[in-house]
Amino acid sequence: MEEDEKYRNRHILHELFLSVKMTVEGLLATPSVNVWNTPGGLNRLCSAVDSIFKHKLKVTLDHYGSRHEYWGLVRSLRWLNPYQASYIDQINKLDIDDNSKSLEWLKQSLFHLNLSGQLWTLVENESHLKQYYSGE
Question: What does 27-58 look like in DSSP terms, one character per residue?
């Protein structure tokens, strides 16, 4: 049974990354110099990457019920990389729910082309990641 679960998870991950790949290829195929000028391009890519962030994310319980969002992980960038604290604080001050804050962070990070640096900060601390994600 465990092997079936691993295979299923790998298949899901493959599909999620394929979605990002196809979205990026579609954006790059447009004749625009700036891919963000493609109508809906940033939102499509944001949605595809958001799905990857939510894969294997632990569901948390609070007084509102269960939540399936990664804002807590993103917010940890404040202490993992203090250089990014003001950027995270600006989003944290928005009067929106945590899931919307996660999406806003993702959209801004993609738009400003700094997602990879932030991801590097998050993934290099494996024990911290395990607080938010289950499995391998």
Answer: HHTSS-SSGGGSTTHHHHHHHHHHHHHHTTBP
